[in-house]
Structures are given as structure tokens and as C-alpha cells.
Design a protein that fits this description.
- The chain is α/β, with parallel strands linked by helices.
- The protein folds into 2 domains: 152 residues, Leucine-rich repeat, LRR (right-handed beta-alpha superhelix) (Alpha-Beta Horseshoe), CATH 3.80.10; 56 residues, no CATH class.
- The chain has 2 helices and 13 strands.
- The strands form 3 sheets. A 6-stranded mixed β-sheet has the order 1-2-3-5-7-9, with no helix packed on it. It has a 5-stranded parallel β-sheet with strand order 4-6-8-10-12, with no helix packed on it. Strands 11-13 form a two-stranded parallel sheet.
- The chain is elongated, with a radius of gyration of 26 Å.
- The termini are far apart.
- It comes from Emiliania huxleyi (strain CCMP1516).
């Protein structure tokens, strides 16, 4: 049986939830709080990427066991537990990130436990911190319990206090907001100008014309005072 990702759409029943997989990519449904044990065990639907909803709190045992083609998963900020062997033999997994983080292999500050062998025998073995390095840095909350051999020996576990992780998440949130504003500002200003034109704000008695006139007269008055 060919278990490679297939083009097209597949609909799966995952613990009573309707999960749509399109070309190997899926966004788990809003409202799901627990991904059941064995949910995508053994290449089921041949996943490439998964985005978890903000409602998801836990990932069950062997949920993605042996999904060879899974390359990335985005975890919600409120995730608290990852079950045993959840990503065992996910050999292509190159990105595990929180929605509030852009870093690879960074878990949410809320995470309380990672089960045994959760990420064992996976891509973490082969994704170095930087060129020339043979080890991968995995960032987890200092308070999280990590099961036996949850990560390969090649991984370096960085334990960070949850408060520090949340501070970094907030900083990243504002940074993303600033970037979004910078991208949207020209279009927003253009839209406001068009709206003012439609409302007649630039007409002889319009509000914009009156505002500009008042500013001009004020500037002239200041210039006369300092002359």
C-alpha cells in the first residue's frame, strides 16, 4: 500500500471529529481539546503538516506514530501534555513550534509533561542548531516533566522558566503586530483617503478642508510671531 502523501482531499473521523486533509496538510478542528491515542498512527492519510487549534490541551499516546512524511506541526499556546511515543519515528519532522514562537523545536510555556519516547527516533537527530553543529536545541518549560528518552540523545534540552517563555511570546506578539501594521499602513491610508473623498471631506465645506485650513492658518500665525 502506498502511504506517501496523495493529492486531493481526504476526510477522516478522528475521535468523532471530522478532519479534512488536503494534499497532506490539515488544520485540526476548533473545539477539539484532546487528540486521541493512535489518532494518525502509521501514516494515516500521509500527513505533511498539522496545525492544532487553540482549544487543544493534550496529544494522546502514539498520536502521530510512524508518520514518516510529517514535516511540521504547530502547537497551541495552551497545550499541557504530549503522550508517550506521540511522534515516534516521525523521521521528517523538522519543525515543532508554538503559535507564539517562530523558533524550531520550541514548546508552549504551558506544557506540563512530555511522555516517554515522544520524539524518539525522529528528525531531531539530524536538524542541528547551526551549520557545523551535530546537536539540536529543544526549548521546553523548566517545570515540564520529560519522560524517559522523550528526545534523542543528539538533542540538547534547554529548560526555560515559563515566565521567561511567556515574556518572549509577548515580545514576539508585539513584533508581529508591528510588522503587520507596517505592511498594511499604505493600504489603510489609501482606504481612509478614498472614504473621505466619498464623504465629501475635501469639498469646499468638508471637514478635511476645514482641518487643513485651520492648520495652515495656525502655521502662518506662528511664523508671524517668530518673524
Amino acid at each position: 500500500m502506498d502511504r506517501r502523501p496523495q493529492a486531493g482531499t481526504t476526510v477522516l473521523d478522528v475521535g468523532g471529529w471530522r478532519v479534512v486533509v488536503t494534499d497532506g496538510h490539515t488544520v485540526l478542528p476548533d473545539g477539539m481539546t484532546h487528540l486521541p491515542d493512535d489518532a494518525f498512527y502509521g501514516h494515516r492519510s500521509a500527513l505533511i503538516s498539522v496545525v492544532c487549534p487553540s482549544s487543544l490541551v493534550s496529544i494522546g499516546d502514539r498520536a502521530f506514530y510512524s508518520n514518516f512524511y510529517l514535516t511540521s506541526i504547530t502547537l497551541p499556546a495552551g497545550l499541557t501534555s504530549i503522550g508517550e511515543s506521540a511522534f515516534y519515528y516521525c523521521c521528517s519532522l523538522a519543525s515543532i513550534s508554538s503559535v507564539d514562537s517562530h523558533a524550531l523545536f520550541t514548546f508552549p510555556a504551558s506544557l506540563a509533561s512530555i511522555g516517554r519516547y515522544a520524539f524518539y527516533a525522529g528528525r531531531i537527530d539530524f536538524a542541528p542548531i547551526m551549520p557545523g553543529s551535530s546537536r539540536t536545541r529543544v526549548t521546553v518549560p523548566a517545570t515540564a516533566q520529560i519522560g524517559e528518552e522523550a528526545f534523542p540523545y543528539a538533542a540538547t534540552i534547554l529548560r526555560v522558566p515559563p515566565a521567561s517563555m511567556r515574556a518572549q511570546e509577548r515580545l514576539l506578539f508585539f513584533y508581529k503586530g508591528a510588522l503587520a501594521y507596517k505592511r498594511c499602513r499604505p493600504g489603510l491610508l489609501g482606504w481612509l483617503e478614498r472614504a473621505q473623498i466619498r464623504l465629501g471631506a475635501y469639498g469646499p465645506d468638508g471637514a478635511a478642508r476645514q482641518r487643513d485650513l485651520e492648520e495652515f492658518e495656525g502655521d502662518c500665525a506662528l511664523a508671524a510671531i517668530h518673524a
